[in-house]
Each structure stands twice: as structure tokens, then as C-alpha cells.
Amino acid sequence: MTITAYEYGFIGKLLKKGLMTLAKVVPVAMAIAAAPDPVRANDLLVAPTRLEFDSRKRTAEVILSNIGSKTSTYRISLVVRRMTAEGKLEEVELPSETDQRTLDMISFAPRRVVLEPDQPQSIRVAVRRPVELARGEYRVHMLFRGIPDATPAVAAVDTPTEGFAIQLIPIYGVTIPVIVREGDLKATTTMSAPRLAKEDGRDVFQLDLARQGDRSTYGEIRVIKQGVDEPIVRAKGISVYTEIGSRLVSLPLDPTQVAAIRGPVTVQYFELVGDDARLVSELKATL
To answer: Among 62, 169, 191, 248, fewest CB within 10 Å belongs to which?
Structure first.
């Protein structure tokens, strides 16, 4: 379990203010450490960043924390999202019958919380499987959304002399997948076509990641060079969900990485299960 200096400081402040007991430190630290970076949006910190339920697991806990400087309100809900071939998640407005069955399986509380600065809140999540649930993987996403202060979305101003101005209030949030698996599901992965490319004017490393089997995959991509201790590129939280067979992975590169990555490299995909990272796919290429 690895905790960053920032996270040590955050937990230390909770202890100092009496907002957390020593008995709670280990669960919170484990939840934060298990989550791939980033796990925060604005003043919102959520850990872990995914929940998986097999046939033996029925309950779980998510820690929602206010890391801002003022009291904030958050709303928690369930949404259905689909992964595209570009690796993006798009919200589904009309859930299918299977989606609705999955939504009905998941219960959680509380659904709305008000947190003072540096205050955590435990969200309890439970799964109730229907009788004779068909073999397969079921997924929805839990959305943690900051609720802005009660100010009007459109406000009149003194200047200019004529007309009015629009005041846009951003609503930020974090989503995490909630996955229920029924049966002994398997999956394998393969990588192909590693390349350097440009995306919106930025240098990126790209490859195609394919999935075979009846469950999703979740893991970490590393690009390494012989004789170099640390990976040139390391990206956590790379998934391929069951609605697609393959996806594009596009990872931004800074100038130092662009210079270092050229030439022969080895690309590895590690599947992450709890604290374990298992190498499941590897290829060699010259960039």
C-alpha cells in the first residue's frame, strides 16, 4: 500500500481535528491507496475508484472527502454509461432491461451529504442479486457530484448599459464503476499497433487494446526500455468494458517522454486485482 505525502497530510488533518479515529485511518488509507490517480475533482476526493462484487461479496464502502476550504454539498446517484471505441464513457439516457436490472440490484446510503473542509463521509454500497441471475457481468456507474451554492444561473449586471450577462456555474463530479459478476468469468487481452501520434496538437502514445472473453479488463500500461529502471510511460485505470471488443488507448507525453520513448521499447499491460498486478499482455516495438 502506497500513500503519497499529500494523502498523509490529509489524513493527519482529520486526526488533528478529531474528524477521524485511529481505527478509521487504515480503511481510509487503504481506499485511497487502492485508487488509481487521479481520484479528485476540484474539492472532491473519492476512494476507491471502482467497486467489484463477485458471488461472495455483498457490501462495500466508498470514502467521499471534502478537500476544499469551505463547506460543500454532494449528491450521489447511479448512471448508466457505455464505453466507445475511443475509450470514452458516454451516458445512456434510456437504460436497457439489463441496465435497469443492474440499477435495481445496487443500493447505497446516504444519497446526499454536506461536508465541512477536510471531512470524510462513508458511503455504504450493497448488492441484492435477484434469484437465478444469469451468468455475466453487470455494470453501472456511481456519480458523486458537487452541488453549487444556491445562486441564480442567470444574473443581471449593471454593465453593459443594455442587455444582461450569463453567469455559468460549473457542476463537477467523479464517477466510479460498480461491477457485479455472476459466475466464473474469464478474459484475455492483446495489444497491437503501438505508435506515436498527435492529438489536439499534443504528443501522445497510442495503441489498440483488445479484449476477449465474458468480463471486462482493468489494468495498467507500462512502456519500458532496456536498461532503464522506471517506465517511460505508466498509466493506471485502463479498462475495456464488455460492450466493446477493443478500444484506442491514447496517453499524453511530455517532451522528455517523447525523446526517451523513441527506439526499441517493450509495452506491457498488467491486470490489477486488489493489490496484485499480473502481467497479461506484452509486445515489443520500435517507435
So the answer is: 169
